[in-house]
């Protein structure tokens, strides 16, 4: 049975496959059994687990002690001085709306560009104008998931479309849209913007040296493997396995909804969700995508980000949700990143934006309703109406109106633009406002005492950063997750489910949101928000995660290596290669250079073996994450396999011109050739010395010391950096 035939509608049948403890005495440990897992039309993976006893879900203290010790060692290692970062081409790729995903990546991109890097942001076409206005390059991605739940719904629709297609065909419609999104990822990292030079005029060619993409853009690992470059991910929601909380897209039947406690079932949800999203038509599309970009073998790993230990940068305030103890140094929680109104804009556009900002005024009806008096208090109530019918929305408004009962004023705000023929709701206690009014600006108004909204991470951060307590109104598991985060931090309420709420619970929620204790804790938490510091930390984490010793040119450490001189084992930048190439026959030993080699279920390694800077990573304590994958794969009757073979070697290098004048070219060529000759002669001298030492029987230990003098060492790189 093929993956496509194996229930492409994401219904994982009941299985007795057991989750075995990774502890030493696995045979005596109780077992958790997966009964079912199903990706639903709403984008939730509903999971049913069977627990033989309470102890089956317990994380032993010894396990967390191991992780604490590991975390301490990692912290000491990451505290070392970072080497200089060469100028490189960086591709960023978010998913989400402008406020909830895209602008955070743009802020990081502007910071990276300010450090000299060439930065491209790949996103939906509707964001082109704003991104380009901020001084960054752009590439249009097909499709536009506006959140992680939208992406999961997108996958559900794709799998259903594939299931309905004729045998042997993936079908059209949703699955074609998913395929187009995946296939647009390759030219985003390696290609020209089709409109970069104007309408239908391609821009300058772009080849990424590093990727910073959202974890759910599933083609990321395959693009990185094909180019042999480092991949990192960034997200506003936690998507890496942990004992501390469940996957935001999961809903485990029969367990306490908040689930903000250490338990083994939390960890299992990550492997199960990864597999439920990946299997069937998605795996088939990714396999086709791999073949399209020149990679061999099938896509057989549901969780390559975990297997390859891909670094993640998480963009939320750790004071709200601390970094889990069982996350390694490759997973960072840097803080809430936001984008300044004028960040990256030219002087002319900055002045124009400042004038627009000064001229901004709230509608008169809103000012008269909410901002002219401090009593009664005002609550902002925002909802997402994508899954609401007009009748349900009107019914919710009537309930909100009745619950306010002249004790509070409600500013009601929908995220999406609704039916233009529908009149906005207005009463003595409730005023519905237009969807395009800026919510972050509303939160800053002194009369707004509390905020209820749809639970998007950026809205939570914007409200808490100005000291406004939180309520989340929604039905999705990710909304339940964010409500639980705020409730555990004692700055928010339990989830308000608009499907089942009545007037009395709504009135109680309004009252609880306005209590002095909750408001005081929200104001205290507000002091921990520092977007500037968070942005600096995000960029620092990105740099710290780069395998710089594998990326830098051996002749000029300020440049990225893109050509390999196999005769002398030297990594060269295109500038260095262009300088020395006329002296040599190109067919003799010069090939494109890829810093990393990918393959199988282990993290990528340096493509040049024996690099002294490639140290062995500290061994992580064991966890049962892969058991979640095995449970789901077992339910589908699918064995695990290797995702790929070794990365391809590629074609011959091409020469690019880098000099503005003949004089500059001559000077750079001369200096580069001097540095290159010095390194080559040094290598030849060392090789002769080693041969003599071997002839006289000098032991290998001394030889290993001598080998550290090779030009790939950091000391030699430092000597070359001055040229």
UniProtKB/TrEMBL annotation:
The organism of origin for this protein: Phytophthora fragariae
InterPro entries documented for this protein: Glycosyltransferase_28 (IPR050426)
Protein name per its UniProtKB record: Glycosyltransferase family 28 N-terminal domain-containing protein
Record field: transmembrane: none
Organism phylogeny: Eukaryota, Sar, Stramenopiles, Oomycota, Peronosporomycetes
Region (Disordered): 1-28
PANTHER family: STEROL 3-BETA-GLUCOSYLTRANSFERASE, STEROL 3-BETA-GLUCOSYLTRANSFERASE UGT80A2
SUPFAM superfamilies: UDP-Glycosyltransferase/glycogen phosphorylase
């Amino acid at each position: 049975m093929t993956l496509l035939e194996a229930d492409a509608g994401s219904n994982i049948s009941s299985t007795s496959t057991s989750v075995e403890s990774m502890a030493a005495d696995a045979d005596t440990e109780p077992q958790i059994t997966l009964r079912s897992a199903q990706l639903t039309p709403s984008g939730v993976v509903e999971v049913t687990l069977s627990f033989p006893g309470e102890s089956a879900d317990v994380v032993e203290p010894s396990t967390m002690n191991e992780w604490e010790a590991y975390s301490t060692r990692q912290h000491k290692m990451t505290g070392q001085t970072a080497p200089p970062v060469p100028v490189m081409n960086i591709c960023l790729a978010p998913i989400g709306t402008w406020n909830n995903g895209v602008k955070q990546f743009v802020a990081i991109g502007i910071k990276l560009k300010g450090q000299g890097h060439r930065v491209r942001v790949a996103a939906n076409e509707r964001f082109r104008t704003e991104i380009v206005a901020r001084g960054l390059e752009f590439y249009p991605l097909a499709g536009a998931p506006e959140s992680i739940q939208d992406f999961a719904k997108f996958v559900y629709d794709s799998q259903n479309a594939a299931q309905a297609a004729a045998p042997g065909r993936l079908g059209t419609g949703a699955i074609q849209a998913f395929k187009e999104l995946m296939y647009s990822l390759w030219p985003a990292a390696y290609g020209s913007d089709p409109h970069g030079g104007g309408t239908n005029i391609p821009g300058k060619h772009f080849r990424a040296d590093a990727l910073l993409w959202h974890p759910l853009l599933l083609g990321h690992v395959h693009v990185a493997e094909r180019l042999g470059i480092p991949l990192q991910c960034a997200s506003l929601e936690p998507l890496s396995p942990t004992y501390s909380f469940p996957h935001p897209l999961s809903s485990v039947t029969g367990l306490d909804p908040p689930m903000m406690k250490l338990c083994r079932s939390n960890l299992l949800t990550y492997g199960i969700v990864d597999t439920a999203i990946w299997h069937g038509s998605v795996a088939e599309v990714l396999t086709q995508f791999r073949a399209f970009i020149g990679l061999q073998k099938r896509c057989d790993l549901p969780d390559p980000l975990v297997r390859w230990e891909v670094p993640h940068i998480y963009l939320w305030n750790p004071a709200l949700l601390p970094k889990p103890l069982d996350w390694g140094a490759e997973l960072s929680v840097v803080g809430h990143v936001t984008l300044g109104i004028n960040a990256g804009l030219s002087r002319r556009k900055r002045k124009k934006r400042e004038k627009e900002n000064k001229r901004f005024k709230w509608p008169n009806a809103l000012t008269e309703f909410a901002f002219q008096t401090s009593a009664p208090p005002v609550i902002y109530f925002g909802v997402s109406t994508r899954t609401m019918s007009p009748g349900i929305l009107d019914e919710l408004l009537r309930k909100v109106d009745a619950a306010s009962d002249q004790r509070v004023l409600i500013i009601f705000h929908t995220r999406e633009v609704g039916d233009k023929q529908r009149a906005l709701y207005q009463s003595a206690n409730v005023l519905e406002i237009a969807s395009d009014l800026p919510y972050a600006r509303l939160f800053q108004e002194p009369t707004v005492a509390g905020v209820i909204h749809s639970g998007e991470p950026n809205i939570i951060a914007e409200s808490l950063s100005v000291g406004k307590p939180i309520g989340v109104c929604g039905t999705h598991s990710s909304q339940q997750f964010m409500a639980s985060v705020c409730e555990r931090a004692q700055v928010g309420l339990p989830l308000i489910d608009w499907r089942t709420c009545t007037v009395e619970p709504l009135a109680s929620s309004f009252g609880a949101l306005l209590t002095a204790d909750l408001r005081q804790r929200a104001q205290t938490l507000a002091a921990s928000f520092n977007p500037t510091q968070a942005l600096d930390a995000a960029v620092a984490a990105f740099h710290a995660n780069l395998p710089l010793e594998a990326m830098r040119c051996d002749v000029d450490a300020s440049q990225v290596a893109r050509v390999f001189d196999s005769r002398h084992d030297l990594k060269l930048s295109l500038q260095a290669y262009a300088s020395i190439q006329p002296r040599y026959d190109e067919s003799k030993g010069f090939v494109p250079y890829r810093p990393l080699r990918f393959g199988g279920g282990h993290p990528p390694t340096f493509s040049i073996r024996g690099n002294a800077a490639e140290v062995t990573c500290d061994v992580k304590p064991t966890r049962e994450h892969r058991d979640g994958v095995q449970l789901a794969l077992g339910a589908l009757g699918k064995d695990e396999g290797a995702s790929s073979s070794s990365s391809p070697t590629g074609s011959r290098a091409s020469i690019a011109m880098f000099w503005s004048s003949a004089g500059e070219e001559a000077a750079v060529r001369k200096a580069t050739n001097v540095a290159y000759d010095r390194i080559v002669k040094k290598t030849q001298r060392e090789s002769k010395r080693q041969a003599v030492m071997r002839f006289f029987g000098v032991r290998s230990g001394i030889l290993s010391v001598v080998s550290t003098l090779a030009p790939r060492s950091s000391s030699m790189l430092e000597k070359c950096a001055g040229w």
